[in-house]
# Entry
Amino acid sequence: MLKDDLPMDRDCFNLIVRKIMLDDIQTTQKKAIDSKALSGHEIWMTTDYGRHPDYHKKLDVEQLANFVRSWSGINVSIFKSIHIPVQTMDEFILFTLDQDTRIVYILDPTPINPMYRYNPLAKYMKKIIWISEHLQKAMSKACPGSRWNEDIRLWQ
# Structure
C-alpha cells in the first residue's frame, strides 16, 4: 500500500493508516478476540495520554495489563510487530515496533521541520518514551519474560 518512492498527500496517508489498523482489528476478531479489548480509546484513557503531565492520574498498570490479557486466544508475546497509530490534530503518525529487527519504524507524512534537520528523531522522542514506558509496564504484567518487555528506547 505504501510506496516510499512516490509522493503521497496527508489524506491518503491517513486513510492508509486507518486501513492498516482496521485490517489488524479484523484479523484479530477472526481469531475470537474480545473486540472491546482492542479499543485504543480505553488505553489512552487509562494512561491519560492526552492530558498535561501535571494532571495525570497515577497509572493503573494492572488495568493496562488487563487490556492485553483480555485478548483471549492470542499469545501477545509471539507477535512480531505492533502497530501504534498516534493521532495529532487531523493527522496520524504510525509507529511500528518490529520485534525481530528491534527497530521502531515511524511513518509520518509531514515534512521534516528545519528545526529537526540535524536530529529528525527529536520530534518523536516524547511519543517513543511514552510508548516505551507504558508498553513495558503492560507487557511485564501480561506476559512476563517476553521480548516485548525490553526498553524500545534502546532499539534503532
Remarks:
- Residues 32-41 have pLDDT under 50 and may be disordered.
- Residues 113 and 120 are 8 Å apart (CA to CA).
- Residues 10-154 form one domain.
